[in-house]
Amino acid sequence: MKTVIAAINSRFIHSSLAAWYLKANCSELCGQVEVAEYTINDITDYILMSLYAKHADVLAFSCYIWNMETVLKLADTVKKVSPGIKIILGGPEVSYESVMMLEKYSFIDFILAGEGEQSLDLLLQYLNENYQGLDEIEGLFYKEEGMLIKGKGGFALVKNLDSLKTPYTEQMLASLDNRIMYYESSRGCPFSCSYCISSTFEGVRYFAMEKVKNQLKCFISRGIPQVKFVDRTFNCHKERAKEIFRFIIDNAASTAFHFEVAADLFDDEMFKILSKAPVGLIQFEIGVQTTNSDCLTAIDRKTDLSSVFKNTAKLIEKGKFHIHLDLIAGLPREDYESFKKSFDEVYRLSPNNLQLGFLKMLKGSRIRKEASEYGYKFREYPPYEVLENKYLSFDSVCELKSIEEVVERYYNKGRFIKTLLYITSGFFSSAFEFYRSFAQYNIKNGYLERPLA
Question: For labelling alongside 43, which of 84, 267, 298, 427 has CA 20 to 30 A away?
Fold first, then answer.
């Protein structure tokens, strides 16, 4: 039996960690298993012909907001030209509506909800006639002779992460071709922000530190350009974070490391460790999201804003780290004026990159269940971006979208640092007012409709 795990990445520079985890944890009893990576920018017919030419018995897709529409088109079409093939879907886009997906799409045979490494192994063993307990597979939803059967159902979680086999095999590393290496040293998040699906299950699980160090050393020795940690809040366990920081600083070479962190969790010892880092080794992504305390309460986001600003400023002052700050427009209890205030306060920190994002009403998230409470209207298709709520009109969302584009083109590109500082500090009441005015000028002249050379 031959199984193909297909990963449809959002860009060429990205790689699929999930697909390689799944392959690594399929035993010999599953038969032949291979990974095929594509991007959403590839021609769909090319992907279809490529998958068809593999003559697989089983085709499995990892489903996310960026690839769900492409996956459904491919799965439907593959099933038509290869009616005997078994189609398996997994990932966050199907994990929270598994029954609905099976009822709606006849070409789907199985859905695995949650973390699929152990569940896929058992399912493939069953399909290869090496396992009998189909109804004992955690997170499995399936159809048999056209009838929906939930199986054991639920949401699969790997309790002991060290029981997993490493995905970072020679084959996987060779496939990177200078793309970003995604890496996790833990799963889960200690916080419960209502817009994040990490809040749908409690607790944080960690890989053994020795295993983490060995893997990081391997990446450094191979000269992988960038390793991006996907831990939801990397420094939630301060002592563990400090140990990893020390390790990559002591073994620094050409590999850069990216971390998503909570700025208010930095302490003096962590700053002391980081002071020894060479320039460019470490990148930090800090989700400020909003500076509106009522909004933070509404989304159940626990953060000390004064510490966030103090510690972020301290990181930026050191001049050693690339700092990326995030804001989210469309959160509950934040209107246009409140968002303007959040923008100006974060902009004053002068990060290397300021991402003005828009709330996504993700499947499984608590905020999606609370949509009616806040008057949310949102796109019913991925990525489920907010259109408006009782605090923010669609007119305001459209205006913020144009401001986002101008910030991305002029501030985040890093080409006009001195000019922007001169203009925003000398001619406008605030940075936000400048970007709003500049966005309107661009719209009036049709510049935002044109790609930049």
Answer: 84
